[in-house]
């Protein structure tokens, strides 16, 4: 499986971003541009903004495929203030990196890495022709780089909840907030129907 769900908060996310750049395997793009702006590429972890803009990234494995496609999204007036458009970053072989943040002290969502497989890209290529031919991508290199990133994240973990690595700051947050019930896309303070405590 190319994906990894893990718990990270506070300085954990900074450590994950540092690892992305230290691996030297990726170009890093925002998944969605700021309203009325072009997509940004980041060249260091310190360039990635805090907040929503820095929580969802697209990673291009260097030399493993074409540049990402910037898909323009026109927005209705008033939806994003005075903005009229934004862009999203697309490409068959991009690796998604998302930061799951706390909801107060009631929930911590998984952070997440994932990417398409060649089989899935081929299955969808007729529908999403704007993304080009999946054969342009080096799927072995993508899987290898994604695996290195996942192993780097796992090495940061101080524990696991189920199969999900827990990074140090997340471990403290989970303990301090009394989060005990894992269901949906994270761990919660209250039980859901049928959920069992960790």
Could you explain how this protein is built, in words?
There is one protein chain. By secondary structure, the chain is of the alpha+beta class. Helices cover 24% and strands 27% of the residues. Helix 1 (11-23) runs antiparallel to helix 3.
Sequence stretches where pLDDT stays below 50 over 5 or more residues: none
Gyration radius (Cα, Å) is: 18 Å
Estimated structural class: alpha+beta
Average of per-residue pLDDT values: 92
- Choose one word for the global shape: globular
Strand content: 25-35%
Name the strands of the widest sheet in spatial order.
1-10-7-4-2-3
Let me know the largest β-sheet.
6 strands, antiparallel
Helix tally equals 4
Would you report the number of β strands? 14
Helix content: 10-25%
Span from first to last CA?
24 Å
